[in-house]
Amino acid sequence: MLWYLGKRLLQLIPVFFGATFLIYFMVFSLPGDPVAALFGDRQPSPQVIEAIRQQYNLDKPFFVQYLLWVGGLFRGDLGTTFSGLPVSQQLAAAFPITARLAILSLVFEAVAGIVVGVVAGLRKGKLFDATALVVSLLLISVPTFVVGFLLQYVLGINLGLFRVTVSGQAPWSELVLPAIVLASVSFAYIVRLTRASVAENMSADFVRTATAKGLSRRRVVGVHIFRNSLIPVVTYLGVDIGNLMVGAIVTEGIFNIHGVGGTVFQAVKLGEGPTVVSFVAVMVIIFMLANLLVDLLYAVLDPRIRYAK
């Protein structure tokens, strides 16, 4: 297991440098001068512009800029914004909010999606199965902002069950409705993935063998069918962790949440390149660690992977 873990960690190194280089290139190769854009219609002196460019290493060759930025990233220095605010301070304020939102969304889509998918797969062709397929298809087809505004109006304004907007501290209780909205599409995909996997494993050879041995239906379903059906779902959940962290821009905008998504969106509008590249780099690291965890979970779910070596 340690050998496998070390191998996977080595494979993540080129992924990290490749992803961060592309991010840095796309942000800082955009047309226009971000320093000049800071002053708007005003015309600063060339000395002021040159001093700012030197402060942010914008006067150096592009590859040198990237290496200096990566070196600072490894030291925990995420740089400063063009307004002088440390990026790490922005991240410390925004990341916990989005992390709480992503955790609630992940729990909802995993628990509810797997339960509905398993029941639909065991009752393939029946009313519950058909209803689950229709509802999941509807959630996939409808844009997230439509679902958000609809639930906000029905559950927040009409019924008063949830707050319409989230306060600045964003406690767990106020993030429940935004988490449901954020997880709606992923919930639908997990339902369909689990349902298809369970229905396929129902007719597998190992299930027939377990049934022929006289095992109870609860053990066959709970151990053999359920465990093997989780493999594609775990893969999707691992990928979705990164999507939940980055894809919360729309949801955070609807509920006025000041998290990572909203901070990155504002940074893009203001041309704050250091904020964008540093925030996205952190998301890349989270995404890679989530996929590493998924690879390790494969060995737990499937003994064939564990003993293949």
TrEMBL record:
Residues 95-298 form the ABC transmembrane type-1 domain. The keyword Transmembrane applies. The chain crosses the membrane at residues 12-30, 101-122, 134-155, 175-193, 233-255, 275-301. Keywords: Cell membrane, Membrane, Transmembrane, Transmembrane helix, Transport. It is a multi-pass membrane protein. The keyword Cell membrane applies. Its main location: membrane. Pfam families: BPD_transp_1, BPD_transp_1_N. It is found in: Cell membrane. It comes from the Bacteria. InterPro entries: BPD_transp_1_N, MetI-like, MetI-like_sf. Gene3D superfamilies: MetI-like. Belongs to the binding-protein-dependent transport system permease family. This is Oligopeptide transport system permease protein. The lineage of its organism: Bacteria, Bacillati, Actinomycetota, Actinomycetes, Micrococcales.
